Amino acid sequence: MIPRKTKRHGDEKAAVRRTRAERAARRRQLRQAVLAGATPADVAAQYGVNRNLVYAACGRGELHAAAVRRRRELAALVQRGMSPKEVARTTGVSVTTVYVACHRNGVKVRHDPGSLSPAERDARASRRPQTLLPSQWRRLDWMLRNADLARQLGISGERVRQKRMELGMPKVPRKKRD
Predict the structure, then answer these.
(1) CB-based contacts of 131: which residues, under 8 Å, 6+ apart?
(2) Which domain, by its residues, includes 77?
(3) Which residue has the higher pLDDT, 41 or 111?
(4) Is the pTM of this model over 0.85?
(5) CA distance linking residue 168 with residue 162, whole number of Å
(6) Is a pLDDT exceeding 70 seen at residue 5?
(7) How many domains does the chain divide into?
(8) Assigned domain for 78 exists
(9) Which 3 state secondary structure label does DSSP give 23?
C-alpha cells in the first residue's frame, strides 16, 4: 500500500491507495463471495465497500447466474411446502421477490385461506361488497338517494345509479334550495 498525500498539507490521508495487485485480489474476493451465494448488498456490507464496486468486480453474467440460482432456491423452498411469507421471513427477501422467483421457475403458489387467522378472514369478508340478487335490488327503498343506498349496501353510488337505470327505477327528485 502506498500512502497518498494530500495537496494542501502534505499529510498522509487515512485512506491509502492500494496497488494494482491488491485491488485485483480484493475484486477476486468480492466475486468469490457473490458466487458462493451472498447478495451483492451483503458482500458490500461485509467488506465495507460500495455495492457498485461489487457489481463491477463480478460482471453482469456472474451476477445474473447468482440471481438465477437464488431465485431457484426460493422457489424450491415454496415447492417443499413453505408459504411465501415464511420463505421471505427466513431468507430476508420481500414476499414479492418470492412470488417472482416462483413465477420464473414455474412453481404454482396457491393462496391458502387457512393461513389467515379467523379475525383476518372476517376483516376481509367485511371489506368485500355485498352481492345482491335481482329480487333484492327490486325490494330496496328507491325513494332514497343513491348515496344513502350506497352507504347501506357498502358499494359505490355509481353502482347504485347504474342499477337504478338498469331496473328502470325513478330518479329521486333533488331538494330545492330556498
Answers:
(1) none
(2) 64-109
(3) 41
(4) no
(5) 10
(6) no
(7) 3
(8) yes
(9) helix
What pLDDT is attached to residue 99?
Answer: 92
- Asked if residue 100 has pLDDT above 80, the reply is yes
Identify whether 81 is part of a domain: yes
Is residue 120 a part of any domain in this protein?
no
Question: Can you read off the three cell numbers belonging to residue 114?
Answer: 387457512
My answer on whether 40 and 75 are in the same domain is no
Residue 69: inside a domain, yes or no? yes
Ranges of H-type helices in 80-115: 84-91, 95-104
| Residue found by looking up cell 456472474 in the block | 62
Look-up of cell digits 404454482: 108
Q: Do 71 and 50 belong to one domain?
A: no
Q: Angle between the 20-35 and 60-79 helix axes, to the nearest 10 degrees?
A: 20
Q: Exposed (0-12), middle (13-18) or buried (19+): which is 157, by Cβ within 10 Å?
A: middle
pLDDT of 40: 83
Q: Which residues pair with 12 in a beta bridge?
A: 5
99 and 81 within one domain: yes
